[in-house]
Amino acid sequence: MSAEDVLVNAAERGWVAVDSEMEKSAIMDMVKVFKGALLKEIRDDDVAGALAAVLVIRDGDVLGTGVVVVLADRALIGWMKGLLKKPVVEAVPLATITEVTRGVKEPTRRICNPNRAIFVRAAQDWELLCARTDIPDQPVYDLVAGLLGGTIKISDLQPVGDHA
């Protein structure tokens, strides 16, 4: 399988796991924006987990709108950086993740509304903001949190394209 197929499979699995047109559109937009940067980090032998659109916070710093792609052995977390808004992707080995929890990120001076979030404790602490609390939560975030935390294994997922 090619790296591009791995990315498409992760995006499709994320797309299927949402039930709002807004979230489906966000996933498609993130694939377009981050495709080049993600493909530099994805190998042909990778196994696709899922992809979700998120707001990325690392060690308390809001990095910006981005994406998380969970593969069999690592998560790729991407955000837009700099004045020219260049896509940046950082790999986080799943073996370095010590804790994954779901919760709510309360408003700060840079974040106006409370947001559902996936909190990831690893070499660096990551907060992946999913949706405002007044917007229905999407199953893709439970899927991503489970894959990151090891409570869901990629091998246990329904094959991509098999939605019966």
Could you explain how this protein is built, in words?
With 164 residues, the chain is an alpha+beta fold. The chain has helices at residues 3-16, 21-39, 139-149; strands at 48-58, 61-71, 74-81, 86-93, 99-105, 115-121, 125-132. It has a seven-stranded antiparallel β-sheet with strand order 4-3-2-1-7-6-5, with helices on both faces. The two termini are 23 Å apart. The model has no long low-confidence stretch (mean pLDDT 90).
Task: Give a quick rundown of the structure.
By secondary structure, the protein is α+β, with helices and mostly antiparallel strands.
Annotation keywords:
164 residues, alpha+beta, seven-stranded antiparallel β-sheet, 3 helices, 7 strands, 27% helix, globular
Helix and strand pattern: HHEEEEEEEH
Q: Structural class, from helix and strand content?
A: alpha+beta
Q: What is the rounded distance between the termini?
A: 23 Å
Radius of gyration: 15 Å
Strand percentage lies at 35-45%
| Poorly predicted regions | none
Overall strand count: 7
Shape: globular
Largest sheet: 7 strands, antiparallel
Q: Provide a count of the helices.
A: 3
Mean pLDDT: 90
Strands ordered across the widest β-sheet: 4-3-2-1-7-6-5
Helix content: 25-40%
